[in-house]
Amino acid sequence: MKYVVSLYLLLCSIPLHAGITEPDCTQLLSWAAQHDQKQQWQVTPRYQFPGISRDEVLMPLFGESVTRWSMEDFRNLSQWMRTCRQQFLQDGDPAAARTLATASGAMMRLTGYVQQFDRSRGEAEQAVAGLLAAPESQGRAAAIELAQQALRGTNIRRELRNVPREFMRPLMGLTNIHGLLPQRDIEALQAQLGSGGGVAGTSADRVPGRADVEAQKDAQSRAVASQSPDRRATPPPTTTEQPEPSAPAESRVVASQSLDVPDISQIELLPPPLQGGADVTQTRLVGVRLGMPLEAAIEAVQQAGFRLKDKGGSLHKLGVYQYWLDFAELEKGETVPFPGTMTPAESRAYQTRLGIQSVQSGKVSLVAYEGRVGRISVSASTFDGPDAVKAYVLERLGEPHTLEGYPDVRWYMVWHQDRDKQTIDDTQLRIEAKQTQYTDLVRNLNVPYTRISYSAWLCGTLPRCME
């Protein structure tokens, strides 16, 4: 019952949304004219939105922050923009109509993100309500302090092992969704948590970290030793005793090696090689182009640092027609051996090495028809951000026919062989650059990197576009 009351009070503290206000066409045009793809704002710790969606720009016109819009609000905006575009076209002002269309497209691409914000907001409110509904105790106060840290963006995963089990789920939830919460919601949740009952920040209730635990053990050992100052080592017994079993030498060596974790400055990670051509069929991805003999393509990929993993072929059917497709898969990156029994420090190092392994890994898949490559797929990573990857790609291939995404988050680009036939079935090249991260548990930090996917296929002359 206390949990229900806490959730009710939390929800009551958040104002209800009655829907956005409808502006007239002149006001919509004045707002839309401010749209600039280069202007972005940090709506959450993870995402950026177009500048025209800033609260100070949007709220005077529509009466509500875009982070609180409903799907009905987006549908209304789309309808209003469509009506005004038609009005401007009838008035002989196509430039105004295009301005509205561009701004409308930028806003409609936000719907999925705003829905995600709403889900994250509900999960965070539920987690906070669960913490506030718990009986007052030192454990609850310490959990509330950790919740405040999680909302500030602090990585608290290492400290979760020291909190009561009933608080682990809400605290982990707040840690996972912090990057998906707008600042307005983060501040509201922080206000609800308050000071954690007035005792969360005291040293007596602070959640002990690993250093505190080790220090406590050392103090206990010194206390035991001080009670017997003249005690000497016990002489060995006269009977033969069996020594305690120890880990195999090979296991100890592997565990020792697992502690040697490189940092970002020791890892060389570049975008997969890309060479532009006169058209899609001439573009080379890691040295391979569409229509290239399969054996020559495999050799080129191997020269780029990949090793052959699998090679073969299979029979496919298209109606009554049967055709044979050859394939080859190549990869790069080393497998981190499992070291067996590990200390906590070795375990953190091992998990970090697994993260680095995923960053350094790469894959190339080739599909060939009648000995010629008709489909190329490349997956690899770089420490360059998505914007730098986009610049690298555009410098080599020119402007794409399709460009979607957000700065520092994700870019999706498509080039078609025939500009007048831009369908999913024509010969084309697709490139996606998306930011992600791995966690360095040794240094207690998140390391961002960009995952890149190249995909090109030759359609029209090949069965089912090589699928």
UniProtKB/TrEMBL annotation:
<keyword id="KW-0132">Cell division</keyword>
<keyword id="KW-0131">Cell cycle</keyword>
<feature type="compositionally biased region" description="Low complexity">
    <location>
        <begin position="239"/>
        <end position="252"/>
    </location>
</feature>
<protein>
    <submittedName>
        <fullName>Cell division GTPase</fullName>
    </submittedName>
</protein>
<keyword id="KW-0732">Signal</keyword>
<feature type="signal peptide">
    <location>
        <begin position="1"/>
        <end position="18"/>
    </location>
</feature>
<feature type="compositionally biased region" description="Basic and acidic residues">
    <location>
        <begin position="211"/>
        <end position="220"/>
    </location>
</feature>
<feature type="region of interest" description="Disordered">
    <location>
        <begin position="211"/>
        <end position="254"/>
    </location>
</feature>
<dbReference type="GO" id="GO:0051301">
    <property type="term" value="P:cell division"/>
</dbReference>
